[in-house]
Specification:
With 161 residues, this protein is α/β, with parallel strands linked by helices. The chain has a single domain, classed as Spore Coat Polysaccharide Biosynthesis Protein SpsA, Chain A. It has 7 helices and 7 strands; from the N terminus they run αβαβαβαβββααβα. It has helices at residues 2-10, 25-32, 49-59, 79-87, 114-118, 127-131, 154-157, and strands at residues 18-21, 38-41, 66-69, 94-99, 102-103, 107-110, 137-141. A hairpin with a 2-residue loop joins strand 4 and strand 5. The chain is globular.
């Protein structure tokens, strides 16, 4: 599943592609070993989602103005959707894709949020930060139901949309 997700991201123009590992890090590395990605381990991954998010944000190169946070269990997001998010220019702190009015993933987080992200803890991503600044959060309608579809079971990976 993580390979299918990484391959979809690599079909987009989004670079660099950073992979944050935690649980089963060796297996993830093995699955992606021949792909042009950079690995960053979150040693405190058991603390929750914030640990992985912080590891990825900390690894973002200084020239990155934003981070597109893709989830490893969402292989059906189309590369074009990733490109649209990455090219969306605004003064917003975050951009969520929407399909038929529903917010999905991945989310684009602007650099001004990075310091707040580094202060997060527990099993919550950046949503707590974004709830405090709703006027700085944009939505980008996309024609991609994959933004709403995560894979919870191996058989779901083979199902089509």
């Amino acid at each position: 599943m993580v390979r299918a997700t990484a391959e979809a991201i690599l079909k987009s123009a989004v670079r660099p592609v950073l992979v944050v590992t935690g649980h089963e890090a060796a297996e993830v590395r093995a699955a992606l070993q021949d792909l042009p990605v950079t690995f960053h381990h979150a040693p405190d991954f058991a603390d929750g989602m914030s640990a992985s998010l912080k590891a990825g944000i900390a690894a973002a190169p200084a020239e990155c103005t934003a981070a597109l946070v893709c989830l490893g269990d969402m292989p059906f997001v189309r590369p074009d959707t990733l490109n649209q998010l990455a090219q969306f220019h605004s003064d917003q702190a975050a951009v969520f894709p929407t399909w038929q009015g529903k917010r999905g993933n991945p989310v684009l987080l602007a650099r001004p949020l990075f310091a707040g992200i580094m202060a997060l803890s527990g099993d919550e991503g950046a949503r707590s930060l974004l709830r405090a600044i709703p006027e700085k959060v944009a939505e980008l309608p996309v024609d991609d139901p994959g933004i709403l579809r995560d894979v919870d079971r191996p058989d779901a990976l083979s199902q089509t949309l």
